[in-house]
Specification:
Layout (H helix, E strand, L loop, with lengths): L9 H8 L21 E6 L9 E7 L7 H4 L11 H18 L5 E6 L2 E4 L9 E13 L3 E11 L2 E14 L4 H4 L1
Antiparallel strand pairs: 1-2, 2-5, 3-7, 4-7, 5-6, 6-7
């Protein structure tokens, strides 16, 4: 097993968004403003709730000008981070995990089992923590990760998602052409 880095800072995430971290045609993160975390604090192919690996990331919220774009419009006078952006962060991390393992192809979210929201990310939240626990990783012709995810706002769990599905697709694959 090749030695893999256990964490990544913001500059690393931007390099991933430009296609530089895992190489051309492989997993990329979106660039700002759609990149929904500032750093990956830990990543491992063992451990986590299911023993199949875990990735943990953080986002500084309070006073972060990179988040003004959605707080200004969602909703005027009642700012809240759209829940779909928190869900997207969990998909982003699941795809990053596959790239980190060395699997080739471009990542695409393929679905989610169930999502529950029990709170909100508002501008006064100091820090969001995302936790993705891998349940199954397939690295054959099909490259697929299935995971459960949690979003915590200042330490309190406010989103959960089960059966997040992300696949990696190479140029000739049907989903890559769609």
């Amino acid at each position: 097993m090749a030695e893999r880095r256990p964490n990544f800072d913001y500059d690393d995430l931007i390099a991933c968004g430009r296609g530089e971290l895992f190489g051309p045609g492989n997993a990329q993160l979106p660039l700002p403003p759609m990149l929904m975390f500032d750093r990956i604090t830990s990543i491992s192919e063992t451990g986590g709730a299911h023993g199949k690996g875990q990735i943990v990331a953080e986002l500084k919220v309070a006073g972060n000008p990179k988040l003004d774009w959605f707080f200004k419009c969602h909703f005027e006078g009642d700012p809240v981070m759209p829940g779909c952006l928190g869900l997207d962060a969990l998909w982003q991390m699941t795809g990053f995990f596959l790239g980190w393992l060395g699997a080739p192809g471009r990542g695409r979210a393929l679905g989610v089992g169930e999502v529950k929201f029990t709170g909100m990310v508002v501008p006064t939240v100091q820090r969001v923590e995302y936790i993705v626990d891998l349940k199954r990783v397939i690295l054959r012709k099909l490259k697929l990760a299935i995971a459960d995810g949690t979003l915590k706002a200042d330490g309190q769990t406010i989103y959960t998602a089960s059966d997040l599905r992300v696949g990696l697709f190479e140029t000739g694959d049907a989903v890559a052409r769609a």
